[in-house]
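User: I've been trying to design a sequence by hand for this structure and keep getting stuck. Would you show me what you'd pick, starting by listing the structure so we're on the same page?

Assistant: Good idea, let's start from the same input. This is the structure you sent:
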């Protein structure tokens, strides 16, 4: 599946500490191998038809959509911030 990144995701990613960016890159490899990997803790977000969240660690999350031929990564950052922003 192809990966696409919303502008908001790109901006959020640039604001992350370097060590969290590296952790995300490792999580992204897991995501591509197995979206249901337990350490990702993927779950559907309430109030959205096609929005999911996954864990980078206990404090940072990323959100994404699943489409027929691609994933759209929407936001990344601290848990509470990411879940509040569309």
């Amino acid at each position: 599946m192809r990966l696409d990144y919303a502008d908001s995701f790109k901006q959020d990613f640039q604001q992350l500490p370097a060590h969290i960016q590296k952790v995300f890159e490792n999580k992204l490899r897991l995501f591509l191998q197995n979206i249901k990997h337990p350490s990702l803790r993927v779950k559907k977000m309430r109030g959205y038809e096609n929005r999911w969240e996954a864990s980078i660690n206990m404090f940072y999350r990323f959100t994404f959509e699943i489409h027929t031929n691609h994933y759209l990564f929407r936001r990344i950052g601290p848990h509470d911030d990411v879940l509040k922003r569309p």
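That's my pick for every position. To get oriented when you compare it with your attempt: The chain has one domain: 2-84. Residues 2-84 form a domain with the YaeB-like fold fold (CATH 3.30.2310.20).
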